[in-house]
Design a protein that fits this description.
Chain lengths: 219, 219, 219, 219
C-alpha cells in the first residue's frame, strides 16, 4: 500500500494514446516533475484536459511544445503561442471549453453524474452539437461528464495514505481531477506520516489518490 | 487623455458603480485597474476565479508568494477575512449569482446586450477562460473598454465576432460615456463633456437613445 | 455590514409559507438556537428541506412536532415517529429523496445549474414523474435544482465576514445549503474577528452568508 | 446459534470479502458488526456517508466528541489518516465508484439482483437515506442479512416491496450460505454445513443454482 513513486515511474505508466488531466492554473498548482518526466519520455498522441496550456517553457506548455498531444481541451490557450499555432495549422485538435463548464464536467465524471445543465454558453459556438433544454423558462446546455486515464495533480503536502492538503490558490482544478481518472498521481512538496495531517484540513481524501510523487529536494 | 489616463478614467467611473459589501470579479487588463479606485468608505470583496475571495494588492518586491496568484497568473495577496477554494466551487459561486458585479473588456457589444470578447476567427483565439461563466452568472455585467478600436466602433447593431454571451451586458462604461442596455438598445445615461453627444453617436455603430436624465459623466 | 443577529431576529424573518433548508445530520451540525426560536414563533405552513427530521425532542424534529411544516423533503424520517405519523395520516406532505440526490439538488440550486443526471433511483419509485435520459448506454434521472427562501445552517466558528469553519462531521448539508437560499443564516459556537481564521481553512466563504447567530454561552 | 451469534457469523464471513486498501461503507445494524472482524493484516478504510473516511471504533465512555458521529448518529472516532468532507462530496465519492464495497441489510433481494430495503407501504417508511446512492455507486454490493424473516423467504423470484435499486446486488451472505447474483439468478457458492442444500433451497423463494465449485462456508 505504499503509494510513493518517482516521476519517471509516473511518466512510464502513461502510454501512447492515453488521456490525461493536468491540474494547475497558469502553472500555479501544476505537477512540474511529472511533466518534466513526460517531456523526456517518448509518449505521444495524448489527449489533454487542463484549464490552460501554461507557457512554452513552463507547466503543461512544455508538453505542448514537444507535441505530445493529439487533442487538447482547455479554457484558455492565450499564454502559450505554440498551442494557438498548432491549432491554426491543424496539427493539434484544440477544443475551447468555458472554465466553469470544464471544472463541472470533470467533477461530474469523478462523481458519477451523467451530465448537468448549465446556462454558460447558451447562444454561442459552445452550444453547437449540444442538447438545449428549457427548465422553468430558462435555457441550459446539457454538458456531459469527462473522465481520463490519468489525473496528474499537485498539492502542497500528502500523508502516506494520499490525503492531500493545499495552500493558497494551488487547488484550482486539482480536487475535481483527483476523482475523475482511473489512475490519480499527486505530486506534492512533502510527504508526511499518517496522523500528521488534521482530518479537518484534508481537501482530497487519500481514497482518490493512487500514487504520490514527492518533490522535496535536498535543499 | 493618453491611453493610461483614458483607462484610469474608465476604471474610476466603474468603481463608482460598486456598492458596499459587493463581491466583484475584475477581468484582466483595464478592469483590473478598478481595484485602485474603490472609495475608502466602501468595502468591496474581489473574487479571483482561480480560487479565492479577498484579492488584495500586489505584494512588495521580495514578498511574493507563488501560491497566491490572480487569474492572470500574477502574484497578489489575500486580505484578512478572505477564503480559498477550488475551481468547481469558484465557478459555482459565479454561476450561482453570488458575484454581484463582473467587470470585463470586450471586442464588441451590440444593442441586444450580446458581447464578443474571446476570439477573432483566424487571428486570435485565446479562449473564453471564465468569461462565459461570469457573463451568465454575475448579477450585473459591466463592460469597461475604450469606445472604439483604432477608430472603429465597438458598440454595434449586431456583433460580427463569435459571441461570448447572449443578452448579458447591463452597462458599458467608456471614456465617452455610460451606456445602459435596455430593451430599446443603447441608452446614454452619462456623457463625458469632452465629447458632444453627436461625437459619441458617430463613434457608435447603433443608435444611441438619450436617457431623459442624461447627465455629465463624473469620476 | 454587521452580520450578527439574535436567534429571535432570525426566526422573525421567516414568514408563513416560506421554504427553509435546515442543515445537520441526525442533529449533528444543526442550528439549535434558531430552531428553538422558530418553535416558539407562530410561523406555519413552511416547506422544509433537510437530510432527516431528527428526533421528536431534538433538532428540526421539534418543529415537526409543532406542526410547522406543510411539506417536507428529506432522505430519512425513521428516527422521528411524528414525521411518519403526519405522513401516514395525510397531515403533512412528506417527500423522500435519496440523500446524495438531495445534496446534489441543493448544490445545483446554489451553483446555478439547471439540473443534473444521476443513476440513483433508476427503476424505483424515485423515477416517477422524472425524465429518464440515456447517456453512453446508461440510464440516468434528470433531477432539478432546489432553492429555498432561507438556509438555516450551523458551523463551528465564523469570522465577522461570515466565513465559516467546521470540525468533525458538522459539515454534512451545511456547505451546499449556504449557497442555495435567498437568505442564509449561520449559527456558530463563536464569532471571531476578521483575520482570525486562516483563509485555507474556510469551508463556506462569507459571501454566501447573510447573517450569523452566535451560540456562545457565558460558560 | 442465537440471534447475536447468527449476526456475528454473517459479519465474519462478510469481512473475508474485504481486500487490503478497500474503501468500505457499512449500513446500520448487522453490517456495522463487520468492522469488528477485519483481519489484522488487511487495512480497510470505512466511509461514513455523513462525511468522513477513516471511521474508527466507539470512543471510551467520557471521551465522546458530539461532532464525530456515524450515519446512525452514534458517537464514533476517526482514525489517523482519515478525512472529513461534506454530504455532496461524500455522495460524489459514493456515486463515482470510489467506494469499493457497500454492505447493507435488505428486506428482499430477487434473482434479477433487485433489492428492497427502505419501506413497507402502509407500515414502515423510514426513507432510503443514502442506500439508493450506495447501491448505484459502490463497485461491489454485499447484502448481509438473515436468510429468512419470521420463516418467510427474503431471497425472492421477484421483490414485492418497492425497490431501492435495480440489478444492484453482487453477493448475498446469510447464516445459510453465500449466494452470488449471476445472469441466471441466485448461485450458491458456499453453504453452511449446519444446513443441507435442500434446507437452504426450502428457505429461498427462487431456484438456487449450485456453483460448480460449491464449498463449505468458512468464517
Amino acid at each position: 500500500m505504499d503509494k510513493r513513486i518517482t516521476p519517471a515511474k509516473a511518466a512510464a505508466m502513461v502510454k501512447d494514446g492515453a488521456s490525461v488531466m493536468v491540474g494547475g492554473f497558469l502553472c500555479c498548482g501544476t505537477p512540474d516533475l511529472v511533466i518534466d518526466a513526460l517531456a523526456e519520455s517518448d509518449v505521444k498522441d495524448l489527449t489533454l484536459y487542463t484549464n490552460d496550456t501554461g507557457f512554452v517553457d513552463r507547466g503543461v506548455g512544455k508538453l505542448v511544445v514537444k507535441k505530445k498531444f493529439r487533442r487538447i481541451f482547455a479554457s484558455h490557450i492565450g499564454t502559450n503561442k505554440e498551442t494557438g499555432r498548432q491549432m491554426m495549422e491543424g496539427e493539434t485538435e484544440v477544443n475551447l471549453v468555458p472554465q466553469g463548464t470544464l471544472a463541472e464536467q470533470i467533477r461530474a465524471g469523478g462523481f458519477g453524474l451523467g451530465g448537468f445543465l448549465t446556462p454558460t454558453g447558451v447562444g454561442t459556438e459552445v452550444e453547437k452539437g449540444k442538447q438545449v433544454m428549457e427548465i422553468n423558462g430558462k435555457k441550459y446546455l446539457l454538458e456531459l461528464p469527462v473522465r481520463a486515464d490519468f489525473a496528474l495533480i499537485f498539492a502542497d503536502r500528502a500523508d502516506e495514505n494520499g490525503n492531500l492538503v493545499f495552500r493558497g490558490a494551488l487547488r484550482n482544478f486539482n480536487p475535481v481531477m483527483a476523482a475523475a481518472a482511473d489512475v490519480t498521481i499527486a505530486e506534492v512538496r512533502e510527504i508526511v506520516p499518517v496522523g500528521a495531517l488534521d482530518p479537518n484540513d484534508v481537501i482530497i481524501p487519500g481514497a482518490l489518490v493512487n500514487y504520490i510523487v514527492e518533490a522535496k529536494t535536498n535543499g | 487623455m493618453d491611453k493610461q489616463q483614458t483607462q484610469e478614467f474608465i476604471a474610476k467611473r466603474v468603481a463608482r458603480e460598486l456598492k458596499d459589501g459587493d463581491i466583484v470579479n475584475l477581468g484582466i487588463g483595464l478592469p483590473t485597474l478598478v481595484a485602485n479606485f474603490v472609495p475608502e468608505n466602501k468595502k468591496v470583496f474581489f473574487q479571483s476565479e482561480n480560487g479565492f475571495i479577498g484579492l488584495g494588492p500586489t505584494p512588495e518586491a521580495g514578498k511574493e508568494d507563488p501560491d497566491i496568484v490572480n487569474a492572470g497568473g500574477a502574484c497578489v495577496t489575500i486580505l484578512p477575512g478572505g477564503a480559498f477554494f477550488d475551481s468547481a466551487t469558484s465557478f459555482g459561486i459565479i454561476r450561482g449569482g453570488h458575484v454581484n458585479v463582473t467587470v470585463l473588456g470586450a471586442l464588441q457589444v451590440d444593442e441586444k446586450a450580446n458581447i464578443a470578447n474571446y476570439m477573432i476567427p483566424g487571428k486570435m483565439i485565446p479562449g473564453m477562460g471564465g468569461a462565459m461563466d461570469l457573463l451568465s452568472g454575475a448579477k450585473m455585467v459591466i463592460v469597461a473598454m475604450e469606445h472604439t478600436a483604432k477608430g472603429n466602433p465597438k458598440l454595434m447593431r449586431q456583433c460580427s465576432l463569435p459571441l461570448t454571451a447572449v443578452g448579458a451586458v447591463d452597462l458599458i462604461i467608456t471614456e465617452m460615456g455610460v451606456i445602459e442596455l435596455k430593451p430599446e438598445g443603447f441608452v446614454l445615461l452619462e456623457y463625458n463633456p469632452e465629447y458632444t453627444v453627436e461625437e459619441i453617436q458617430a463613434a457608435t455603430d447603433a443608435p444611441l437613445h438619450l436617457s431623459p436624465n442624461l447627465k455629465k459623466m463624473e469620476v
